[in-house]
Amino acid sequence: MKKILSIFIIGMVFVSFGCKRAEVKKVKVKKDNSKVLKRAQENQKELTNEVDKY
User: Any idea what DSSP says for residue 4?
Assistant: First the structure.
């Protein structure tokens, strides 16, 4: 019985740790995506400015 309990607890710890790591990765990805979006918008503005010149 104790063996089953210890395995269950270890499993729970690993699951919670995995979830935390996944959340951290999601947050990082979101930040990267917002940076990429901002850069794309800036590039688009520059392109429209160049087009307006002609």
Answer: H
